[in-house]
Design a protein that fits this description.
The structure is a homodimer.
Chain A lengths: L2 H7 L3 H5 L3 E2 L5 E4 L12 H13 L7 E9 L7 E11 L3 E11 L6 E12 L7 E2 L27 E7 L15 E7 L7 H7 L6 H6 L5 E10 L3 H7 L4 E6 L2 E3 L2 E9 L5 E11 L2
């Protein structure tokens, strides 16, 4: 990591958001961060990163993140959070974790679970490798227009967006649009990529239904899965460069749609792939 | 459901495999089924279906399955299993569940968790709908050669396979092949499709690495996610017809590869989409 990158990481809002205070019983206390505020509660990608961070900071952890599934069970209220991290099983090359994010009810004081996650960490090995999903040919980040987030939802201001194709509709006219988005994205200010920020990046894409319908209907992610394909060395080499992202969808039905995402580095190496199922209102 | 279908379901090995004995504390006892045996322990798709069944049979369940993530934490031994099903949160349209499959250690008698799952059930609503992923144009099942499973692993004999493209290599010669498979598949004997059998079908595809490398290296699914797009009415209308499946992969790296699957009915309606991350040895 260059000195410039290290300096930029210092005091970064993403690190402040990830701050976990270890408790005597092995759990952690965290607090929602105003910089990652969404319409209601925090940005889902930030919550996903926080639950992963509970595993990353756990003293018994084996290896690096391989998969993460986050279930957004209920709204996260602005305020303190309690993170309970449990190792389910440790094998030779994989380790299985369950994480629960709990908050106290303002009136009864009783704790209830607002988000759950399962995490698998793993030891990667030098074996046969092949990438089948080639990155699309796109112009470099500096040639792509920067999406103006100055008046956008707070969490959007935590990212630098350079949309290549499939941006938000310029008019909300109920017309039918393509579902695919391609963009360059990174933390703002720039921050060296790590597993937690990669997890958060998997959730940055605008809800596919907004593009398909050109109508900003209320939505909420129900379940998000991330598969990490990069190891720590690849992330370290990436530094604070832009990530190339592509998002797609397969079906909207019965009030739920799916959304997939692929994240590559500028050299076309896959960093992560992700899937989510999302509630939509109408 | 026609009477013929109902009769065919009666005493089906899949139903026997799914048999759950309710316990006084709300948990269930199950037993591995010899008919779904894999190389070591049961077929992963059968285990996924069993964990989902624990939620389907729970008296407090709201709605139908929307998403299922199964983490294969450790080997499932042939014998009795203990299924602990917990409702984490009930909302107006979604409900979140955690399921643990436990087995007792033969020597110490101590119970340990061998598989975990998170499940979301949901009330589907009549809202805007659009399918974006069209089913491929393929010949009907009766025109596709049936894959001979008479000498195959036991669980493979529980399915009728009609491979369209991307079957197993005919020679294991380390050559490089395409990663995509298309096939028609259904339970054998035929059985009316339901959420549990749909979950199991998501895992039937041969490991992508066997096709890519034309080498049958040892593999094991680490985590599997299923998104259900069909509702109960669509499944009932489907009956015991063949399901059209397509499997793909994006990357093999560091000892783990990803695999995706899409399942359509003969009319081209998406029934489910699925993703998994799989360990490979070399």
């Amino acid at each position: 990591m260059s000195e410039m990158t290290a300096a930029a990481t210092d005091g970064h809002p993403f690190d402040a958001m990830l701050h976990l205070q270890p408790q005597a019983d092995g759990s952690f206390v965290a607090h929602t961060h105003a910089g990652y505020a969404n319409m209601v509660g925090p940005y889902g990608g930030a919550t996903a990163a926080l639950l992963l961070q509970g595993v990353l900071q756990h003293p018994d952890r084996l290896g690096e993140p391989l998969s993460l599934t986050v279930n957004f069970a209920g709204p996260v209220q602005d305020g303190p959070m309690h993170l309970v991290v449990r190792v389910v099983r440790t094998n030779r090359t994989t380790q299985h974790w369950l994480v629960e994010l709990r908050q106290s009810d303002a009136t009864t004081g009783q704790e209830h679970t607002v988000t759950t996650a399962s995490v698998v960490t793993a030891l990667r090995r030098s074996v046969f490798e092949q990438q089948l999903a080639a990155a699309p040919q796109v112009p470099p980040p500096q040639d792509c227009p920067e999406f103006d987030v100055s008046r956008a939802m707070t969490w959007l201001q935590r990212y630098e967006w350079r949309v290549i194709s499939g941006g938000l509709p310029t008019t909300w006219d109920d017309s039918c649009h393509l579902v695919q988005t391609r963009l360059w994205v990174r933390d703002r200010p720039a921050r060296a990529l790590d597993f937690a920020s990669l997890a958060a990046l998997c959730d940055v894409f605008f809800p596919r239904i907004w593009l398909v319908r050109a109508r900003p209907v209320p939505i909420g992610t129900v379940s998000l899965t991330v598969y990490f394909h990069a190891d720590a060395a690849q992330l370290a080499a990436h530094g604070s460069a832009h990530v190339l992202g592509q998002a797609d969808g397969q079906v909207l039905r019965g009030g739920f749609f799916d959304q997939s995402a692929q994240l590559w580095d500028a050299q076309g190496q896959l960093l992560a792939t992700s899937h989510q199922i999302v509630y939509y209102k109408e």
